[in-house]
C-alpha cells in the first residue's frame, strides 16, 4: 500500500512538473514581444532561479570539487544551451512547433547510443525514431515548402541537441559510489548557466523599462514582472524541484513519459492564450512526435551492468552497479 501511495505521489509530481515546464514559453513569449531580447529573458530566468536556489548550492558545495565537469556540462547544455535555443525559437515560430521539434531529443539520444557509444538499439526504438521524424515533417508541413522561419526551426533543433546532452549528463550524474545529488546539480547548473549567459546576453544593455510595464496575453495587459515571476518561480524552480521528487518516486523512464505532456500543455496554452492555431496535419504530426518520443525513450537501452568484482575465494561477487540507483537526475524531464 505504501509503494502504491509513493507511485501515486510520484505521478502527481511528474504531472505538476510537466504543467509547470509547459507554461514557460507562453509566459516568456509576451515578454519577448514587449521588447526584451530572447537571450535577456533566458538570462533573467536562469539568474532568478539561481538566486532562489543559492542556499541549495551552498549546501552541496562539495560537488564543485567532486564533479566539476558534470556541473559545467549541465550549466552549458541543460541550462544555457537548451533555454537559449528554445526561447530564440519561440521568438520566431509558434511555441507548440518549437517544443514539438525539441521533442526529437529522445530520438537523437538513440542516435548517440547507436553511433557514438556503439550500443545496439531495439527495433521498437527504431520505429519510435521513424515516427518522430515523420511527425516532425507534418508539424513543419514540408509539402508546403516549410513555411516556418528556417532560423527558428534550426534553433528548435539546437534545443533538441542540447536536450540530448541533458539526458547523457543525467546518466553520468548517477555514476560512481557517491552519485551527485540532483538538486545540487540543478542549483549549480543554473548558477553556471547564468554566468555564461551573462557574458553572452550582456544584460547591462537590456531595456529594463520593459519589466516596469505590461505585456499582452490573450488580449489582456499583464504586468511584465508577474510573467517573469511565473517563468522563474513556477516554470523553473518549481518545475525542476517537482521533477526531481517525481523521479525519486518513479523511474526516469516513467517520469519521462509523463513529461511528454509538456508539449501538449504548451500547445494548448499557446492556442488559448496566444492565438497560435495549429492545423489538423500539424496536430497529427505532433501526436506522432510524442508517440515516437515515448517509444524511443522507453526503449533506450540501459547501461551494461558492471563486471562483478571478486571479493576473495568463497565470497560472493558484488557488482559496482549495486552502489548506484540513488540521486538520479530526471533523465526523462527536460529544462524548457
Number of strands: 2
- Major β-sheet, in short? 2 strands, antiparallel
Mean pLDDT: 77
Oligomeric description of these chains: single chain
What is the end-to-end distance?
A: 34 Å
**How much of the polypeptide forms β-strand, as a percent range?**
under 5%
**Which geometry do the CA atoms define?**
globular
Task: Encode the helix/strand succession as letters.
Answer: HHHHHHHHHHHHEEHHHH
The value of Rg in angstroms is: 20 Å
Count of alpha and pi helical runs: 16
> Reading side by side through the largest sheet, how are the strands ordered?
1-2
- Percent helix, as a range, is 55-70%
Content-based structural category: mainly alpha
Low-confidence stretches are 302-333
Amino acid at each position: 500500500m505504501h509503494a502504491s501511495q509513493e507511485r501515486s505521489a510520484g505521478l502527481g509530481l511528474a504531472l505538476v512538473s510537466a504543467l509547470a515546464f509547459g507554461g514557460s514559453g507562453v509566459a516568456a513569449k509576451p515578454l519577448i514581444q514587449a521588447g526584451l531580447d530572447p537571450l535577456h529573458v533566458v538570462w533573467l530566468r536562469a539568474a532568478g532561479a539561481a538566486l532562489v536556489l543559492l542556499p541549495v548550492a551552498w549546501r552541496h558545495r562539495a560537488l564543485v570539487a567532486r564533479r566539476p565537469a558534470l556541473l559545467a556540462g549541465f550549466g552549458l547544455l541543460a541550462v544555457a544551451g537548451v533555454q537559449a535555443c528554445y526561447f530564440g525559437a519561440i521568438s520566431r515560430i509558434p511555441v507548440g512547433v518549437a517544443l514539438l521539434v525539441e521533442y526529437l531529443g529522445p530520438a537523437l539520444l538513440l542516435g548517440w547510443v547507436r553511433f557514438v557509444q556503439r550500443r545496439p538499439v531495439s527495433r521498437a526504438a527504431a520505429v519510435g525514431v521513424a515516427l518522430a521524424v515523420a511527425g516532425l515533417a507534418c508539424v513543419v508541413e514540408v509539402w508546403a515548402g516549410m513555411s516556418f522561419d528556417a532560423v527558428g526551426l534550426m534553433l528548435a533543433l539546437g534545443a533538441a541537441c542540447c536536450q540530448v546532452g541533458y539526458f547523457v549528463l543525467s546518466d553520468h550524474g548517477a555514476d560512481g559510489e557517491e552519485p551527485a545529488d540532483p538538486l545540487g546539480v540543478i542549483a549549480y547548473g543554473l548558477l553556471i548557466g547564468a554566468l555564461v549567459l551573462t557574458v553572452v546576453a550582456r544584460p547591462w544593455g537590456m531595456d529594463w523599462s520593459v519589466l516596469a510595464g505590461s505585456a499582452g496575453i490573450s488580449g489582456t495587459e499583464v504586468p511584465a514582472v508577474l510573467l517573469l515571476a511565473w517563468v522563474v518561480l513556477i516554470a523553473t524552480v518549481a518545475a525542476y524541484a517537482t521533477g526531481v521528487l517525481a523521479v525519486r518516486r518513479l523511474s526516469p523512464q516513467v517520469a519521462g513519459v509523463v513529461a511528454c505532456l509538456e508539449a501538449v500543455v504548451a500547445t494548448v496554452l499557446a492556442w488559448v492564450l496566444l492565438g497560435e492555431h495549429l492545423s489538423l496535419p500539424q496536430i497529427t504530426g505532433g501526436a506522432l512526435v510524442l508517440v515516437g518520443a515515448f517509444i524511443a525513450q522507453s526503449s533506450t537501452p540501459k547501461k551494461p551492468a558492471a563486471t562483478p568484482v571478486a571479493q576473495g575465494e568463497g565470497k560472493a561477487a558484488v557488482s559496482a552497479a549495486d552502489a548506484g540507483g540513488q540521486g538520479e537526475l530526471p533523465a526523462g524531464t527536460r529544462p524548457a
